[in-house]
Specification:
The chain is of the alpha+beta class and 169 residues long. The protein has one domain (33-168). The chain has 4 helices and 6 strands, in the order αβααβββββα.
């Protein structure tokens, strides 16, 4: 009887551990999404419309995102970084979206005027844990070239929202 219990113990625990380790990685793939294309409208108006619609989205994960905006007036471009709640530097209880007593500023944050070009993180305080980055570069007075890259779920929603804003312009 003792030998049978030892055999079961020797077989069961390693098999359970192996099964647990094998299942731990399933479904947790944090895939990325990158998309780009021409959209109609002014880049500042498109950015404002996109943020407004994302902040009024019915999904709490999208609605509570916080944004950081960089503006490049020399090349007529904007970068919009989206962060999950609490990931953006400067988020405290007094301005956290999850605090019902917080003073929350909705809409597009004031753009930080930045010399340089989009995508370069030199002299820019960008937390690498952003959810997605939306880049808008004006091509002419009526259109802009947009790219979005980041986490698959949030980036797809941002792209669809940007296209909806472009269609309504």
């Amino acid at each position: 009887m003792q030998a049978g219990i030892k055999l079961i113990t020797v077989l069961v625990f390693p098999l359970c551990g192996s099964l647990l380790a094998a299942c731990a990685g399933i479904g947790w793939e944090n895939s990325s999404f990158t998309h780009g294309g021409k959209v109609s409208g002014n880049s500042a108006a498109l950015a404002r419309c996109t943020v407004d619609k994302l902040q009024s989205d019915s999904r709490w994960m999208i609605r509570t995102m916080q944004y950081q905006v960089f503006s490049y007036p020399d090349i007529a471009a904007m970068e919009l970084y989206a962060y999950h709640e609490g990931k953006l530097a400067g988020t405290y209880a007094r301005n956290s979206p999850s605090n019902p007593d917080a003073v929350i500023r909705y809409g597009l944050p004031t753009p930080i005027i930045h010399p340089g070009r989009p995508g370069s993180n030199t002299d820019k305080e960008v937390d690498p844990d952003y959810s997605f980055v939306l880049t808008l570069k004006r091509t002419d007075n009526a259109t802009a070239f947009a790219t979005v890259s980041g986490r698959k779920y949030e980036s797809r929603i941002a792209w669809d929202t940007l296209e909806a804003c472009s269609a309504s312009e």
